[in-house]
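Q: I'm building a small set of examples for a reading group on sequence design. Run inverse folding on the following structure and report the sequence directly after it, with nothing in between.
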């Protein structure tokens, strides 16, 4: 049985720097830019955590594709407060996940629907 159901994720973007700046602002963290077969900005994660990246590879941003939940390190309210000023939109306000924490849906600068999550 794998430790995590997900080992890596990629969020397609049409403007890597715009998208990276959006997520850095909303999540309050810095991304590492690198080339992983194309321009990429990597989400920070612990060595044994699940990693992911913003990737410019011709993929199409979507409001209807798979939904990725990004951890806000206990700062969901603060992250949501930064979404609009960073160029995004809150699609679903902070919602109780039935004792498992809280989540909200946002639309990023590229047109992707992404969830923000806060553990209890």
């Amino acid at each position: 049985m794998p430790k995590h159901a997900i080992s890596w994720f990629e969020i397609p973007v049409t403007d890597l720097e715009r998208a990276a700046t959006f997520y850095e602002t909303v999540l309050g963290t810095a991304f590492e830019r690198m080339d992983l077969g194309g321009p990429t900005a990597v989400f920070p994660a612990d060595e044994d955590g699940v990693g992911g990246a913003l990737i410019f590879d011709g993929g199409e941003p979507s409001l209807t594709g798979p939904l990725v939940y990004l951890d806000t390190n206990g700062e969901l309210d603060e992250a949501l407060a930064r979404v609009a000023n960073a160029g995004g939109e809150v699609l679903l306000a902070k919602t109780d996940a039935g004792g498992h924490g809280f989540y909200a849906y946002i639309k990023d600068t590229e047109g992707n629907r992404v969830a923000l999550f806060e553990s209890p």
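The domain at 8-118 is CATH 3.10.180.10 (2,3-Dihydroxybiphenyl 1,2-Dioxygenase; domain 1).
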